[in-house]
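User: Hi! Is it possible to get a structure for several chains at once, not just one? Here's what I have:
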Amino acid sequence: MKSKSKSYLLNVIFLALLSIVIFSLISGGVINNYYSSILVTVGIAIIMTVSLNLTTGLLGQLCLGHAGFMSIGAYTAGIITKQLQAAAPDFPFAWSLAIALVAAGLMAAVFGFLIGMPALRLKGDYLAIITLGFGEIIRVIIENLSVTGGSAGLSRITRMSRAFSENTKLSSAIQFGIVFWIMVVVVTGIFTLGRSRHGRAIISIRENEVAAEATGIPTTYYKLLAFTLAAFFAGIAGGLYAHQIGILTPRYFDFNKSIEYLVMVVLGGMGSITGSILSAIVLVTLPEILREFANWRMVIYSLALIIIMIFRPSGLLGTREFSLIKVWDSTANWLKNTFKRKENKPKLPFMPHYDVWEDSPVLETKNLGIRFGGLVAADDINLCLMNNEIVGLIGPNGAGKTTVFNMLTGVYAPSNGDIILLGKSIAGKPTHEITNNGIARTFQNIRLFKSMTVLENIKVAFHTRMKYSPVSGMLRTGQYNSEEKGMDIRARELLRVFDMEEVADDNANSLPYGMQRKLEICRALASNPKVLLLDEPAAGMNPIETQELMNTIKKIRTRFSVAILLIEHDMKLVMGICERIYVLNYGHIIAEGTPKEIANNSEVITAYLGIPENEKQEGHTTC
Amino acid sequence: MNTKKLLALILTGIMLLSLSLPMAVAEETIKIGGISVLTGPASLYGIAVQKGVDLYMEQLNAQGGIDGKKVEMLWMDDQGDPTSAQAAYYKLVENDGVVAIIGAVLTGATKAVAEAAEADGIPMISASATAYEITTGRPNVFRTCFLDPFQAVMIARYVKDEGVTKAAVLYDNGDEYSTGLYNAFKEECEKLGITVTAAESAATADVDFKAQLTNIKATEPEVVFLPYYGAPAAYILKQAKEIGLDVKFYGADGISNVIDSITDTSLLPGITYTDHFTDDADSEIAKNYMKSFEEKYGEKPTLAFSATAYDAALVMTEAIKTAGSTDFAAVVEAIKNSNVEGVTGNITFDDHNDPIKSVFFTTFDADGNRVFIKRMDP
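Assistant: Yes, the chains can be modeled jointly so their relative placement is included. Here is the combined structure:
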């Protein structure tokens, strides 16, 4: 561990040395304005690409209007420095630049938030089209406002390469320093955020939105957070751009610009931050290197793109990262070790205390029903789940079992009736809130966060039981460290219970089927529920696996003290472990009782097997 | 794996080849940088500029160059992108050591180059950037094309001479060129007592103008001013015919390539436009230009920008000759005091570094040939 943090420290020293070396090369005139302007362009492209990767790579939402946020930032910053200079010529440029950049980021963030609110309700292609439209709207608005100079744009924005000093070389060097360190801060910020509970929440939305919500992640909040944050950084990049080039034309920030950055993200690998950096460097410098080829340069550039995408379809780095960026982690740790000599005590995830006593109901539904248009999918459902009870919910296909689950977990809002969890009504509340209040579920078709590791899958579920903020996640504060440590301990403990500790660092989708089922249950338990809903846990399992599952379910009940409601078609399992069974048919409960009672109930037999031929006549007359 | 290796080899080969090329030239030359849009949709303008400049430099070098030194033109493609244009500028100035800049072509790119050139004080002439503020407050930045507002003013005066009292405008509100022309036209019309009956606008890249044209028709103007480039103008002319708007149309220099987009050439005689140059110009240098252009490129110049570019090269090299050195300040001073006979007429510069020169009113015949109408002096 110590040597590791030392090697991280080397990275920090490397970055500092790199910036100092380049700084002195520029101020000494070895690197001329041409190369330094390319370096600055690369830096800005990196900020743009990495921030776009936050929405497109980590959150998994295709955004085609990133240049729109850049233009908002560019114009805001440009107008501010121009106005400040006009109003107070003696005000130091460095300060007005700082103010302008912050304002640029905030302005873009406000727009990101406003666009995100309606847009993020949509997914995939629809969101892409909205963001595309947004980018164009922004451009048209800027073209028609007088404060932005209309279609002529802004010019004579003070350029960083001239403003800091009479000595233009020194001024260019300062420009490089500013862009370089802002880039470093943005990149490490996004990187560390991605490795905190907030980052896991964002990635889990990409992996499986329904499961994320059911695991307790407020998905709308995190989508907005990621979107707004990406807009903020794009705004800063825009502010830097304005003061690099000195002129702004609305047309520069068109659809093609957004696509250019998107290409960088895709080329680098969706979700890989170091990949984004690499591809931004390659795609900005390539056309410059190829300038010698005149007309052929676009052909070579496009060919290079095609070749890379053929040989590396998932991008240069896929989702992998270099260790170089783990810098922040280590510096924080190293600083702490040196100056405080105090280890962060692990703080275990918060365990909600459920105020229930033996043999009292934990979950009740009262006359629960839902209609989809004219179709009554469920009606007059009265379920009752006692503390630590295992209850089965069975019924023929299409009886409405999963619909009941979806109402209990807030996926559907019931049309009438009420759901009482631990004495409180939860009907119509959002899924993640219900999860926080103590209901966890699994899905009929497994919904894991596939490209995350087993351990990370569990950690996503701990999300609601932790407190540290996104900022503290970015800065890796003590609170972050102790909570993350505590969570790691808890997650491994949980995996040990299910004999899955040795696969903790494997990707979820590399597990065999039975293990995946187990992991889903394990993840549901991580949020520390009082009620566990299992939707066909034995589906697709062989008899041996089913037997093992029965033992696991029993074990869960005693160990975690949860009430379990399960939907299942495997009668051996249902009859084997359920203490009570509800039978659902055509959206109504037709029977309730012990397994034995149910097995002998004539109505249930009829529902499952149909009416015997010789009794049919009689059946009709009673109707 | 083998294909990869092969590709790598080919690419390396191309690289090496390119490295060996510049080394062939070793004699002492005067290097001038050209920044132009040579690829992409606007390359039509950029290539026209490049051809004009190259033609002049070839003739100059054939006559011995400047004081025995040959002029070497180094061209950079900016793709019309301001960032790329500025990088190209720095590459030319800092890496290649050029002593003057001709370009850029599009307004945004030219502004970005001018922004950098102003700080360095290097002499710069654009042959095509018509936006007013490019030369404002930049003593070292010049142009050889006239300005957008200037053309509009001349058109207003021209229609006044024709006895027109009611004019309408259809313009692109997202385009600086178009809005600039519209504003100047409106202003001059007010001065001259011409009523602007309708000022309709459309968004950039619109292709359906019927709503605006119908509104214009309702106000019964005698002429319609279209500050548009050729491609949208072709749509407008076609749709105007469809809704029965039968008036004379006027345009500025941007509309001159309408001929490339229009299918019904019978509509062409309905349009009159201002140009920097006309093929029928009768001065000695203009005739020579037309002849040598056709000899070198095998076609007539398609755009007047080739002529303004030819003049830009002429003004620049003459100024270097006059200054007797390539010292930036001396060359800038020489350009400022230029008084040379160019292809597009006699060129001098005003206080704002804009050329003082004539406007050529031009139209088409039904076969699509340009027909010179008259020349107006400011």
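The first strand of chain B starts at residue 29 and ends at 36. Chain B touches chain A at residues 4, 7, 14, 18, 21-22, 38-39, 75-77, 79, 81-84, 86-88, 90-91, 93-95, 107-108, 111-112, 115-116, 119, 131, 133, 137, 173-176, 179-180, 203-204 (CB under 8 Å).

User: Great, thank you!
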